Amino acid sequence: MPPEPIDEVRGWLAEAPHVAVLTGAGMSAESGIATFRDALTGLWARFDPQQLASPEGFAADPALVWDWYASRRAGVIAAEPNAGHRALADFERRHPGRLHVITQNVDDLHQRAGSEKVIRLHGDILEDRWFDACHRHARGANVCDPGWAEPGSPPACAECGNRVRPGVVWFGEALPVAALEAAEQLARRCAVMLVVGTSGAVHPAAGLAYTARRAGAKVVIVNPQPSELDALALRRLQGTAATLLRRLLAGEPPGPVSATG
Ligand code: APR
User: Fold this and answer.
1) What does DSSP say about strands 149-150 and 156-157: parallel, antiparallel, or unpaired?
2) 60: domain range?
3) Same domain, 134 and 204
4) Cβ-based neighbour number of residue 124 at 10 Å
5) pLDDT confidence of 261, banded at 50, 70, 90?
6) Which atom number of ligand 1 is nearest to the Cα of residue 227?
7) Residue 77 Cα, ligand 1 centroid: separation in angstroms?
8) Which residue stretches of 134-202 are H helix?
């Protein structure tokens, strides 16, 4: 009798010297944070996230973009890590150095659950940055000092008018080089890559699953819906991050899980 798919994947994880976990917005869905491609609701229903999450969108309407991020920040602060975040952190604690998270998410739920080995590909929604490089600053510094920001929507530099923006990677912007290089290295080195809660629609993040597969890793998708990475996965476990990661990593008794691949 062949093992249940979830049992089989648990066996792979138990033997893997290195596990990489690529997470997307679905990882935080059970914490109440909307995924990126869910239709925007409420005030934001009439906007396209790709329009808002871009330098052009911010330049066109700084207040609208700033207020959208302010409402998302409030949602992140109010959210709690779910059982999936905790299962990853617990595994990392029990097996130091064997599991690394590579996340596309800009929330801090992996970190608040206790994960320490987390690579942030798309930045941190709770951080601020200046929108422009400051070339006109009277004091000779080439960037504005956060202390010079006047409150507003968005805050602006009291001396040169530079605006504050969220510390996230927007559409059309490059990912942080060091983070991407570290993620590529993990994708090449891991024996198993869990791809959790991502549509696989955005590169270069989604490309890490291809890198892992080409390097010989077993790629396993955890998602209730089909994704653009399904074709390269060795196994696809249909279900949610909170439910399946708990069973895969914390030794929860397996239950029937449909799988393909
Ligand atoms: N558990 C696991 N997966 C889930 C859950 C859940 N509870 N709920 C939804 N999903 C899956 C959806 O089926 C979908 O495949 O999460 C995925 C979310 O996809 P997207 O909304 O496209 O989010 P993501 O893949 O993270 O987007 C990647 O695109 O817009 C940019 O920068 C943004 O980081 C984001 C990137």
Assistant:
1) antiparallel
2) 38-78+125-168
3) no
4) 18
5) very low
6) 15
7) 19
8) 177-189
